[in-house]
Amino acid sequence: MSSPAAPGFESAPLEFRFRSESEMRARATEFWLEMRSRRTVRDFSPQTVSREVIEDCLRAAGSAPSGANLQPWHFAVIGVENTALRRQLRAAAEAEEQEFYTHRAPAEWRAALAPLGTDASKPFLETAPWVIAIFAAQHRAAPDGGHLPVYYSKESVGIATGFLIAALHHAGLATLTHTPSPMNFLNELCRRPVFEKPFLLLIAGYPADGARVPKAALAKKSLGEIASFL
Ligand code: IYR
């Protein structure tokens, strides 16, 4: 059965590959195990990673679903060769983070972060091969020069970011989701309009030799804790 296209709009045939139950189960397990092996890494190697890899991962991110398919995301990619911008980025992020860790973060937030060993020092912003600043548009340009709304911007950009993290991991890279707060400085540094709200910074590259992860980060809730079948 095919559903009718909305009147006045064209449709295209759905490309969907049906898989056997056993193939589906094997693939679901394989993907879970692959995703489970992802770790947030805080120590990056300066080893370079080709732009082509990052481009395909960004294409994967751009394939995400979004409210009314308006794709309200922008990925500002800053290569390691852009040393001046990287230096500015690090200085601005560390200034905010210094404030955060010493004053702004409430005690219980600091306590929640303590086992992860994060601090205001962000050397990876200068040394990791790729830094991707992700922006969420709050509206879009109208043909008359005014503004039109976008829908579910945060949800859409969150989904696309999840795709990007999964794609980078699948490609064989380590990532770090970094959230300097507030991160308004990113608009100016990345030359993005003010109606695009910084969403997060994603750092990608190889882990440094001997990189370690906090044991606390390995503890993931069980299926019974995160899901209920009603
Ligand atoms: N924004 C700070 C602090 C931080 C917050 C959360 I929530 C983390 O999971 C990790 C760190 C930073 O990025 O260091």
Output the keywords:
alpha+beta; single chain; two-stranded antiparallel sheet; NADH Oxidase; binds 3-iodo-tyrosine; 6 strands
Kindly describe this structure:
- The protein is an alpha+beta fold.
- The chain has a single domain (40-210), classed as NADH Oxidase (3-Layer(aba) Sandwich).
- It is built from eight helices and six strands.
- The chain has helices spanning 21-36, 51-62, 83-104, 107-113, 124-127, 153-171, 185-189, 223-226, and strands at residues 73-79, 130-137, 139-141, 147-149, 174-178, 196-205.
- The protein has a four-stranded antiparallel beta sheet.
- Helix 2 (51-62) runs antiparallel to helix 6 (153-171).
- The mean pLDDT is 96.
- 3-iodo-tyrosine binds at residues 97, 100, 113, 118, 178-181.
Rg measurement, Å: 20 Å
CATH H-level superfamily? NADH Oxidase
Number of strands: 6
Domain module tally: 1
Write the layout of secondary structure elements.
Elements: H1 21-36, H2 51-62, E1 73-79, H3 83-104, H4 107-113, H5 124-127, E2 130-137, E3 139-141, E4 147-149, H6 153-171, E5 174-178, H7 185-189, E6 196-205, H8 223-226
Antiparallel strand pairs: 1-2, 2-6, 3-4, 5-6
Bound molecules: 3-iodo-tyrosine.
